[in-house]
Design a protein that fits this description.
The protein has four helices and no strands. It is mainly alpha-helical and 110 residues long.
């Protein structure tokens, strides 16, 4: 369950940061469009909400939010280091994390 939450949180941080002009230009060569940024940020917030729901479902209301906060902290640190050291590869890593999360979801939630 923790792997699923970490992967979803990493993908959410990716989407939220790529909704900002500076990070968008670091990763993509194309022009920054505000409409695309709104979609990226909206998808990031949706993933965070899904992640919170999965933690609350998996560990209950007593411990779920605590583990969710821990997963957010760890994934934010990982995403920050990744954007600092390899900004071009960061989007690929986030896509791999998202795919890994959706592959693992039936095993953990089911």
């Amino acid at each position: 369950m923790l792997w699923l939450g970490l992967c979803l949180a990493l993908a959410a941080w990716c989407l939220l940061s790529l909704g900002l002009e500076k990070h968008h230009q670091q990763v993509f060569a194309g022009a920054f469009r505000p409409a695309r940024a709104r979609v990226l940020r909206g998808a990031g917030w949706a993933l965070l909400a899904l992640d919170f729901g999965l933690f609350a479902y998996g560990w209950g209301w007593a411990q779920g939010p605590i583990f969710w906060t821990a997963a957010l902290i760890v994934s934010a640190l990982a995403w920050t280091l990744l954007m600092t050291m390899a900004p071009k590869a960061s989007a690929k890593v986030a896509v791999a994390a998202l795919v890994s999360a959706f592959v693992a979801m039936p095993f953990w939630v089911g």
